[in-house]
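Re: your question about Cysteine hydrolase

S., sorry for the slow reply, the queue was backed up all week. Below is exactly what I fed in.
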Amino acid sequence: MTARTALLVMDVQPAVTDRYPDADYLPRLATAVGAARDAGLPVIFVVVGFRAGAPEVAAHNRMFGGLAGRDLPASPTDVHPAVAPLPGEAIVVKRRVSGFAGSDLDMLLRASGIDHLVLTGIATSGVVLSTLRQAADLDYRLTVLADGCLDNDPEVHRVLTGKVFPMQADVTTVDAWIGATLTNHD
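Result:
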C-alpha cells in the first residue's frame, strides 16, 4: 500500500501567533500550505480549544489550569487568516498539548488512509514535540518542516529540530520539502 501524506498545521491561532512575533513565519507557512493544496495533499488544522468555562481543565494543570472556569474569548476553531482553512478542510480541536490529546485526529487520519504526517506549528517545544512523540508511537511516518515551526527560544528550536526530532522524523525546510517531496508525493 502506498503511503498517504497530510500536512498538519498546529496551533496557528491568533491567540498563539500574537505571542510569537516573527514576520517571516506566516508567509513561509502559507507557502507550505499552498504547495500542499496544489499537490492535492490534505491540509489538517489542529487547534487547542475548550468548552465555555474550560471544564476539561483541572485547576492544577500547569499549562492550562489558569483557563479553568473562564469563558474564553476566541472560537477554538479560529486559525490565523494567513493560513486559514478552505471549506472542507478538517479542523481538529485538541484539549492538551499533543494534537492527539482529547481529539479525533488519529481516527481522522486512519479513516483517510494517511500514514505520513508533515508537522508544522507553534511551538516547536510544545505541540510539535508532543505530537511528534505520540505520532511516532502510533507508527506514523514523520517529516518536520523546521522553518514551518516556531518557538520563543531559538536554542530550544535548534536542539529539537537538529538533534531530537531526527531520531523519529525527517527534518527539512519548507522550500526543500516543496522541491523534493511534493514533486513526487505519495
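The two ends are 10 Å apart (CA to CA). The beta strands are 5-10, 43-48, 91-94, 116-122, 141-150, 170-172.

Happy to talk it through on Thursday.
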